[in-house]
Amino acid sequence: MLTLKQLDKTFGAGTASAHHALCGIDLTLQDGEFVTVIGSNGAGKSTLFGAVSGSFFVDRGRIVLDGEDITYLPEHKRAKRIARIFQDPMRGTAPDLTLEENVALAYARAGGHLFAPALPRKKRAFFREQLARLDMGLEDRMKTRIGLLSGGQRQAVTLLMATINTPRVLLLDEHTAALDPVVAERVLHITQDIVAENHITTMMVTHNIGAALSLGTRTIMLERGRIVLDLSGETRDRLDVPGLLALYREACGAELDNDRMLLSH
Ligand SMILES: Nc1ncnc2c1ncn2[C@@H]1O[C@H](COP(=O)(O)OP(=O)(O)OP(=O)(O)O)[C@@H](O)[C@H]1O
Q1: Hey, whose CA ends up nearest to atom 7 of ligand 1?
Q2: Nearest one of 244, 237, 233, 238 to 208, comparing CA atoms
Q3: ipTM of this complex
Q4: Beta carbons of 261 and 209 less than 8 angstroms apart
Q5: pLDDT digits (tens, 9 = 90+) for 54-77
Q6: Which residues contact 151 (CB under 8 A, 6 or more apart)?
Q7: How far apart are CA 35 and CA 218, in angstroms?
Q8: Of 13, 95, 201, 210, which cross-links 147 as Cys (Cβ 3.0–4.6 Å)?
Q9: pTM of the predicted model, to two decimals?
Q10: Does the beta carbon of 56 sit less than 6 angstroms from any atom of ligand 1?
């Protein structure tokens, strides 16, 4: 279980450009829960992920994972349990290393090691099987430099690498936004399968409202560093995009300001 209690973060505190990016975030995620996260531009979605993954420490509040207080645990020590994938497919892999070398690195990192020994044969075979499931022909390209793969292929590999040692929490920060729609759809399918099979507690930021309402079992909406909507069960099941926008208007007294979100449904 992941619990966030009263998280607060101000960037540039004490300066003229101070920005209160997280304002008392309270959120509990059950094991294996898949939550989609939406919100207008600058609402604090990436900041929330940064707080959970440890890119910075929060100013106030507590982050508790499986009963352990990890609020001040450095990022590299959380990495074994909390994986994060970004929008940029180039970010999660080393372009000059082969697919196999990247996988070896991911294993090493997940095990808390600095150096990557050669991949044990069993693990190699397992990863090859996983690659075959992607149906992108990558299982026969273990010796190919990652930099030669397409964005979609790289993002799919990044997803496999991030979940190689089954993290407790997976943070997906618009991880399909830079892919063409067909590839994005496929990567989303793979995401759902991996998350469900491994029972990984997952939060996924998306600007696609339709995807936000159809994937996972819960949707939260952020606005100015606060959770303004937390939708699940029948309420969420019955909701369509206009319905969500109306709820937003009711909660915030304004129209949603996110062009990408409004254009993508
Ligand atoms: N390191 C930082 N220093 C100063 N301000 C920051 C920093 N990171 C984020 N912010 C500010 O905090 C606010 C929240 O940013 P964040 O990236 O979390 O928003 P977001 O909801 O992910 O937005 P988007 O959908 O546009 O990516 C923004 O106003 C942003 O400019």
Answers
A1: 11
A2: 244
A3: 0.96
A4: yes
A5: 999 999 999 999 999 999 999 989
A6: 89, 90, 178, 179, 183
A7: 5
A8: 95
A9: 0.92
A10: no
